[in-house]
Amino acid sequence: MAKRYAYLPPGGGPNYEWSADHTYVKVSAADTGGQYTLMEDNLKANFALGLHLHRYHAETFYILEGRVDFFIDGDWMTAEPGTCIHIPPGVEHACCLAKGCEGGRMLMIYQPSGFDGYLNELSAMSEADFEDTAKMEALNAKYDIVNIGPLPERDREES
């Protein structure tokens, strides 16, 4: 009989090593019937995510380590360990490590699921694929990612 639960030890689960972070899928779309995806994101010193939104899915971030600056719906804020941020569909947001922070770690919930599929498809792409604007736009559309622009400017003294 198949197990009716999932168990992953530290460092377990499908994982994706990128230049700015290392992400682990802890609970996948397959585990939840598409209801949500839970991921652990280990942020590197150069982590920054440009301004974007999702039309159909929400994101929740729970900061475990480090300090992460979020730009949400026109507001900048610094999230420290223990901070929880929920961003509903349609709300513009971006984030980066706070000034002086060399790394961080956060849990992320995507509801409904799907972001794990996006990472899996990205991991199979070549450099030429990443440079193919039409291919990237189609992939972003498939996974409800609407890129708006770069990380907004912030007076770094605020963080």
From TrEMBL:
Cupin type-2 domain span: 50-110
InterPro entries in alphabetical order: Cupin_2, QDO-like, RmlC-like_jellyroll, RmlC_Cupin_sf
Alphabetical list of PANTHER family matching this protein: PUTATIVE (AFU_ORTHOLOGUE AFUA_8G07350)-RELATED
Protein name, as recorded: Cupin domain-containing protein
Species in which this protein is naturally found: Thalassococcus lentus
